[in-house]
Amino acid sequence: MVSNSAKEVFIQGVTRDGKTFRPSDWADRLCGVMSQFRPGGPQPGSHLTYSPWCVPTVINGVKCVVVNSELREAEPMAWDFAINFAKDNDLQVAEACLLPDPPKP
């Protein structure tokens, strides 16, 4: 489903048959569960912020979760959890690289 060379995986809030995935806060929930998995391990208060390895975002009006491949190397079971979440819920997954927004003039 996901190649080993992917730097980032985008789990999209759209099922393979094109339906919007519910509940509407699914991305925040998934990233909340994954918040403890971060560089250096969990720290006091780290449950209050998202992990840099698993971040919710909106792309072209579609809620997504961007999962960084560093998670796979540091915490393989957490990586499997995120990828299997997408698979179990029949969500569309894309391999890509999130680019920063261009600077504003």
Automatic annotation (TrEMBL):
Pfam families reported in the protein's UniProt record: DUF3579
InterPro entries noted in UniProt: DUF3579 (IPR021969)
Gene3D superfamilies tied to this protein: Uncharacterised protein PF12112 family, DUF3579 (3.30.70.2340)
Name of the protein: DUF3579 domain-containing protein
